[in-house]
Amino acid sequence: MRGFELVHPASLGEAIKLLDTDDPTVRPFSGGTALMLMMKAGVFQPSRLVDLGGIEPEHAAVEATGDGGLKLGAMATLAQVERSADVMRVAPVIPRAMKRLANVRVRNVARIGGNLAHGDPHMDLPPVLSSLGGEVAVTGPAGERRIAIESLFSGYYETVLSQGELIRQVILPPQRGWASAYMKCTTRSADDWPALGVAVSLKLTDGAVQDSRIMVSAATEKLTRLAAAEAALEGAQPGEAAFARAADAAATEAETIDDARGSAEYKTELLRVYVKRALAEAVRNGAVQ
Amino acid sequence: MNVMRPMPAGQVGRSVPRLEAREKVTGRADYVHNLVVPGMLYTKVFRSTVPHGRIVSIDTSAAEAVEGVYRVVTGEDIRKVVPEPYYGPAFHDQPVLALDKVRHVGEPVAVVLAEDPYVAAEAVQLITAEYEELEPVFDEVEAVTSRAVVHEVLKPAGTFPDLKHLVGRRDTNVALDYQLRRGDVDAAFAAADRVFEHEFRTQQTMHTPLEPMVSLAIPGHESLTIHTASQSPSFVRIEIARLLGWPENRVRVVVPHLGGGFGAKLYIKLEALVACLALLVRRPVKLSLTMEEQFYTISKHASTFRIRSSVKDGKITGRRCEVFWNGGAYADIGPRVTQKSGFTAPGPYDIDNVSIDSYALYTNRPPAGALRGFGIPQLVWAYESHTDLIARELEIDPVEFRRNNILREGREQATGTAMKDAAIEAVLEDIVARMDWSKPFDRGTGPLRRGRGIAIGFKASISPTTSVAIVNVYGDGSSSLYLSTVDMGQGSDTAMAQIVGETLGIETENVKVIHPDTDVTPYDMATLGSRSTFHMGNAVKLAAQHARDQLDALARSLGLPPGTNYGPKDLFKKKYGMQAGNIVGVGSYIPDYKSPDPATGLSDNVTPFWMIGGTGVEIEVDTETGHVRILRMVNAVDCGRPLNPKIVETQLSGAALMQLGFTLFENMEYDNGQVTNASFADYKIPGIHDLPARIENDIVEAEQKSGPYGAKGVGESATFGVSPAIANAIHDAVGVRLTEMPLTPEAVFRAIRAQKG
């Protein structure tokens, strides 16, 4: 029987060295909630798993930055982020989204970094964190770089990370003045993978939309920023008419895909509805002070 | 009764907490999954990747070369143990491992045996097979006329007289053609004011017991012991003995707790395979399926139901039913579903002229069998959707239309059997009253539209079937109940112990229930079709009465006066001079039954009892997305007098929620015969957030006079009305009619769009 090697580096640097190989069957292991399913299904057979559980504890820290933003260590569990008072104050949309993200057992184990690095377009956090203008700090054999989360994904279960690179931290800019919302839609059971996820963030100045970020996931091959929808909102008075224009623009520009959760056609119609609803929800939620 | 303590009274009708609850929640309950015996080999199954094909060759050499592999076995090897290795409850059509042909994707073709289950799993991936692919057929209606033939010749089991005419029939996918003719349907149609015709379809779904199927066979000296998660230990013993040509007493079948069954674990599932393997290699052999493998083992019939009704002066005068059951590649119990449920296809209505044709079809899908309702939910889905459509067309209130046509006590059902102890009206009126049907209803605002719907259904208990029970009173007066009813979560241990307690005048909690072990516990047909409370309940009551009568006789023989204070313990001591002896009470029960006339399907005694169930729902439809939210669900049943009201209530909510999943989203999806969503990641069942906002479960006042203490079965009754009640409510809310399950948001959305043009 083919086994695999499980190694336990004590530092991030050591982990990166262990992952610095061209062999795609060498993979990092953090919470394991996604990887274990792939291994059980026989979709992925590792030769070596690099367990990140023993690296420096600072990589699991969740803290507010002096300027009103957030830093989330990649090894922080989803539950840790969900329960952080700093996160609740700076970005309340995150703990709200967590309530319907997987289940409490998964949230207690899954890590923020793994959640992003997995590249699964059905995840809830990529649209939420990217709508907040989030970036990831990535460390690899060639050093460190920053990537906007909206640019992290290159395709279905694909990211721009190279072999040996690890997400070290998620960095969120100050949210003051931004109003945000995340809505997802399931078409089978309530706890199904979403057929559609929509995350929106609006900056309202003097009663007009000064800036916005509108992200769609799950219904598209990868996380997608809806530029035309954002353009339709720019300078507009928030309200039904403007939101409907943005929704129509979103429905036109998004390339939705067919799967067991619904046809592409239907998901486009869902997107139209949910962009409207998410924008209204963001306004109701109000701007972060 | 005069020798027992009269206290405590009222074991029956008391919500006794389940006897096994503590054992289960503390993780002490026995399951076959946890059973390991010395020398045991684990099995992994190599399965067909094509839906229909001739086996050209199977290459097992690479798997055999893997270190740690004990042996690789194919269908031809099985013949060394059983020359004719075909099994099944209705047809002997299913090979232990595929021979000559494969008939569905996922059919077992070969197995790897190894001491390490991971070695077996790895080696099985190295087996290859070459097939000459044959044209497949997947749709039940196409299967009637398709060129593709799944079985060249029909092989009905000899045990059923009504299947004899099918012996040797060739080149057809129709495994059984059941018919019923009553009155003159054509004349009724000709004389009618209006005639209505609709077609309804249901999808294939799966039981998803959380404990997947598992069996372990241990060869002994001229004997075989099978530990198995089975709902039918007696059948397993009989069928394995038949395959091996052995007497029954050399096969022992032991069944501990089950982690759910719902009909998935009936008849033979893995038992024939582990039995043959154990005898082939002379070592204990265990096979534990994964959740995914269950989807290729058994499922619920997809169906198509064409229904046509004539109405005159608001009364249904004639009804023609054509039902096509998609049985998949092997008959399993499908032919019994076709017939035993088929005769209720016209619904619980008083209709003089009825014609039913019900067809069991072979297709190249995984086999379909019994699933909580035995075909009834598929039928009620159609006839109660149809009933609402007729009422709507005639502009009659759907409740009023049902009242005008309902099958009343004493009237003859389509078979000619008079309705008896069947509270159909009471169930309907209970739901109507609870829903305040006559009061104004909030129709919703904006994109959220509200509607409500009602549906009622009924089922005949499968007949004739036998149950035997033993009550053993020990020397100290304590007692045990020996029975082969399987408690798979439905609470039968508790209910049966209550019957013993009530009859002997002792506390339910003091009755020990001995789980099925065919060396120890007597025969029972199976735990299926809500039959245990009635059949086994009657046998248990007879056994307890028999024990009580013997205790009375013992008291008399010892010269004690009637009404003596001597308890059983004192009697034994007085008789034997010490704590010794037993009183063994035996009860055997089979109800009266008259087999239907093969030509007309008529019988004046077609079932020992009727199960009645209905559901009313209030729903909200999001017209922008098609999402349906159940605001309120009312389930009502006639289960006679409930033995344990709390357990009945959980049976009602469990059955209704299971059917809710089948109604709204559960669906086995296919790509050329391959199930593409065979896991809980992609085959979704209801979770806590899918529950109706409000759910009420009601037991109507009723009594089954022939049942034990007035009781009858209830495990399936709350499934009956759920699907059509929701479809009727969607129609009420947004004016669109869905005729195909599941009622997904996209289906609702598309129907709304189509209506708008």
Automatic annotation (TrEMBL), chain A:
The keyword Oxidoreductase applies. Residues 1-177 form the FAD-binding PCMH-type domain. Keywords: FAD, Flavoprotein, Oxidoreductase. InterPro entries: CO_DH_flav_C (IPR005107), CO_DH_flav_C_dom_sf (IPR036683), Diverse_Substr_Oxidored (IPR051312), FAD-bd_PCMH (IPR016166), FAD-bd_PCMH-like_sf (IPR036318), FAD-bd_PCMH_sub1 (IPR016167), FAD-bd_PCMH_sub2 (IPR016169), Mopterin_DH_FAD-bd (IPR002346). It comes from the Bacteria. Pfam families: CO_deh_flav_C, FAD_binding_5. One of its GO terms (molecular function) is oxidoreductase activity. PANTHER family: XANTHINE DEHYDROGENASE SUBUNIT C-RELATED. This is Xanthine dehydrogenase family protein subunit M. It comes from Enterovirga aerilata.
TrEMBL record, chain B:
GO terms for molecular function: iron ion binding; oxidoreductase activity. InterPro entries: Ald_Oxase/Xan_DH_a/b, Ald_Oxase/Xan_DH_a/b_sf, Ald_Oxase/xanthine_DH-like, AldOxase/xan_DH_MoCoBD1, AldOxase/xan_DH_MoCoBD2, AldOxase/xan_DH_Mopterin-bd_sf. Residues 26-135 form the Aldehyde oxidase/xanthine dehydrogenase a/b hammerhead domain. Gene3D superfamilies: Aldehyde oxidase/xanthine dehydrogenase, a/b hammerhead (3.90.1170.50), Aldehyde oxidase/xanthine dehydrogenase, molybdopterin binding domain (3.30.365.10). It holds the Pfam family MoCoBD_1. Coiled coil: none annotated. SUPFAM superfamilies: CO dehydrogenase molybdoprotein N-domain-like (SSF54665), Molybdenum cofactor-binding domain (SSF56003). PANTHER family: XANTHINE DEHYDROGENASE, XANTHINE DEHYDROGENASE SUBUNIT D-RELATED. This is Xanthine dehydrogenase family protein molybdopterin-binding subunit. It comes from Enterovirga aerilata.
